[in-house]
Design goal:
- The protein is mainly α.
- The protein has one domain.
- 73% of the residues lie in helices and 0% in strands.
- It is built from two helices and no strands.
- The longest helix is centred in the middle third of the chain and has 27 residues.
- Keywords: Membrane, Transmembrane, Transmembrane helix.
Length: 62
């Protein structure tokens, strides 16, 4: 299977991916602080999902 190449996508899809890359880290930091202050299962799951998304963007898997 070929690796997905983000520049083959339509311009609107590329723009959405670039925006999501820029917004993920501040949301992750906010969620981390919120998880430290108010630990709930929902916050832990959300933090795990955000960490996974950030790693996915960092490793250029999307």
């Amino acid at each position: 299977m070929s690796r997905p190449y983000r520049y083959k996508l339509p311009p609107w899809a590329r723009r959405c991916i670039f925006i999501a890359e820029r917004v993920t880290l501040p949301i992750l930091i906010f969620q981390f602080i919120r998880t430290i202050l108010y630990v709930t299962m929902f916050d832990l799951i959300l933090l795990g999902i955000l960490i996974g998304v950030l790693i996915t963007f960092y490793m250029k898997w999307i």
